[in-house]
């Protein structure tokens, strides 16, 4: 314990910077993941075969490969492939950007499945009632189906947020200076205190994830209407 | 009087199942038509073809002269003119009673928020639920839900109202309040097509009763003709079971 406090005191600024990087990466990735998830979730329920197949291919590829490998492909693979066209990750935000792209695509696929499930959980009479009033498919989706689907999806979405937050740890392999990377650097300098350092790092993740799941509980309670 | 609805040689299949085989019917302006018949006879499917909640397989459905299966018509616009009430109410659970009623007129830009509110309160008054304006559907009884659903459909000022077994999911003591609202509507001159198992209602309110069985219209006529002097064997045996 004293060791952990000591580590915290000595490395406070750099740990905070790393924490900020982790949070920034999480927020940026989840923002785009949500957009991707909504788009592909809607494609899956669109009833249009080619669109559904497109969404299925994307989701299957993401779900069938490890995030670590996806990170390598995006950072090194895509980086190398686009080099002849003058593209370099270094010019576009470096490893942070590559990590954000990877995590967005990764979480986006899982979000798409969550959103599809949420939409399908809404009674189909809801769409019929909205359509029979003269509302278009899009308007019915936006005003009637998605708000209801969102309430069912909320726990799964928060769960995905927590998973994605922890997944940012993996992109330390391409050198993003987030928490886990910070832990690596710290142990390199003080190998003897490895246990205390990694427990400190773990505590950071634990605290944020706990806060997130508490927030989720409160939100769940707040969105149950008239029951 | 003008025909609001014309149906010619309507066929509807689900996969290999032929639900509607050859339906011909007309509904005049202001007419109240009750569709009766055993379950599985195709009454509900027929009703859902009228506003194209089901795509038809063959034939024509004309509403106000518009062919509903025509790809060029503005289906949403025509649907604004055809109110529908469902067996399971299908109220929007995330919206209050008032919002349920105002959402379509406001979203479809027919009315300002204030006007829609005022109109919604009038309608709630009409169905006797003005004090429930701020309640959520989950806080209402079945009969109250169905009356709100009727008000919601009326908010778009439709010319035609379709009712799909509006009292079948209700506890017996709540059937009366819903039928009362429907009677009032009929008396106000609304064109109505009602799928129902309430023979008393059909007898009292309908201008015409249509008996369906096996995907066909077997017999139709005034309530007096169909209930008093049914001609077809199948009508007689059905009425014997339900009356």
Write structural notes for this entry.
The complex is a heterodimer of chains A (227) and B (243). Chain A is mainly alpha-helical. Chain A has one domain: MetI-like fold (Orthogonal Bundle), CATH 1.10.3720. Helix content of chain A is 81%, strand content 0%. Chain A has helices spanning 2-45, 49-63, 67-82, 94-121, 124-132, 137-167, 179-189, 194-222. In chain A, helix 1 (2-45) runs antiparallel to helix 7. The termini of chain A are far apart. The mean pLDDT of chain A is 91. By secondary structure, chain B is α/β, with parallel strands linked by helices. Chain B is built from nine helices and ten strands. A six-stranded mixed β-sheet of chain B has the order 6-7-8-3-9-10, with helices on both faces. In chain B, helix 3 packs across helix 4. Chain B is globular, with a radius of gyration of 18 Å. The interface between A and B is medium-sized, with 21 and 31 residues.
The average pLDDT value of chain B, as a whole number, equals: 95
Work out the helix count of chain A.
8
**Strand order of the biggest β-sheet of chain B:** 6-7-8-3-9-10
Describe the biggest sheet of chain B?
Answer: 6 strands, mixed
Structural class of chain B: alpha/beta
Q: Please give the count of helices of chain B.
A: 9
Find the count of extended strands of chain A (DSSP E, 2+ residues).
0
- How is the quaternary structure best described? heterodimer
Indicate the percent of residues in helices of chain B: 25-40%
CATH architecture of chain A: Orthogonal Bundle
CATH superfamily of chain A: MetI-like
Radius of gyration of chain A using CA atoms only: 21 Å
Low-confidence stretches of chain A: none
Query: Domains counted in the coordinates of chain A: how many?
Result: 1
The global form of chain B is: globular
N-to-C SSE string of chain A, H for helix and E for strand: HHHHHHHH
Under CATH at level 1, the class of chain A stands as Mainly Alpha
Shape of chain A: flat
């Amino acid at each position: 314990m004293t060791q952990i406090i000591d580590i915290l005191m000595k490395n406070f600024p750099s740990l905070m910077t790393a924490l900020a990087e982790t949070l920034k990466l999480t927020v940026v990735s989840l923002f785009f993941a949500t957009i991707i998830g909504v788009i592909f979730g809607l494609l899956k329920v669109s009833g249009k075969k080619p669109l559904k197949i497109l969404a299925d291919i994307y989701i299957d590829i993401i779900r069938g490969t490890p995030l670590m490998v996806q990170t390598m492909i995006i950072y090194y693979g895509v980086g190398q492939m686009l080099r002849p066209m003058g593209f370099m990750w270094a010019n576009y935000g470096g490893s942070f950007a590559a990590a954000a792209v990877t995590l967005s695509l990764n979480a986006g696929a899982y979000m798409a499945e969550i959103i599809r499930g949420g939409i399908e959980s809404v009674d189909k009479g809801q769409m019929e009632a909205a359509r029979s009033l003269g509302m278009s498919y899009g308007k019915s989706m936006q005003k009637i189906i998605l708000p209801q689907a969102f309430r069912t999806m909320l726990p799964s979405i928060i769960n995905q947020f927590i998973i994605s937050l922890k997944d940012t740890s993996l992109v330390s392999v391409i050198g993003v200076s987030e928490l886990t990377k910070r832990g690596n650097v710290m142990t390199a300098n003080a190998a003897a205190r490895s246990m205390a350092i990694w427990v400190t790092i773990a505590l950071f993740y634990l605290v944020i994830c706990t806060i997130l799941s508490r927030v989720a509980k409160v939100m769940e309670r707040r969105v149950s209407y008239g029951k | 009087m003008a025909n609001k609805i014309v149906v010619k040689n309507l066929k509807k299949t689900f996969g290999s199942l032929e639900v509607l085989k050859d339906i011909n019917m007309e509904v005049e302006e202001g007419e109240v038509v009750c569709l009766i018949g055993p379950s599985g006879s195709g009454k509900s499917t027929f009703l859902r073809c009228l506003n194209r909640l089901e795509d038809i397989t063959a034939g024509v459905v004309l509403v106000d002269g518009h062919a509903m299966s025509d790809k060029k018509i503005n289906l949403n616009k025509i649907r604004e003119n055809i109110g529908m009430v469902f067996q399971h109410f299908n109220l929007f659970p995330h919206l209050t009673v008032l919002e349920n009623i105002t959402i379509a007129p406001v979203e479809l830009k027919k009315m300002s928020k204030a006007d829609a509110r005022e109109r919604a309160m009038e309608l709630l008054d009409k169905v006797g639920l003005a004090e429930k304006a701020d309640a959520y559907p989950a806080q209402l009884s079945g009969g109250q839900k169905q009356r709100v659903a009727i008000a919601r459909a009326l908010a778009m000022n439709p010319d035609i109202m379709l009712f799909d077994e509006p009292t079948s999911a209700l506890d017996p003591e709540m059937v009366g309040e819903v039928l009362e609202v429907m009677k009032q509507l009929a008396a106000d001159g609304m064109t109505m097509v009602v799928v129902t198992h309430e023979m008393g209602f059909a007898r009292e309110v309908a201008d015409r009763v249509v008996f369906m069985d096996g995907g066909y219209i077997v017999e139709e006529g005034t309530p007096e003709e169909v209930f008093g002097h049914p001609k077809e064997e199948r009508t007689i045996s059905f009425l014997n079971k339900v009356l």
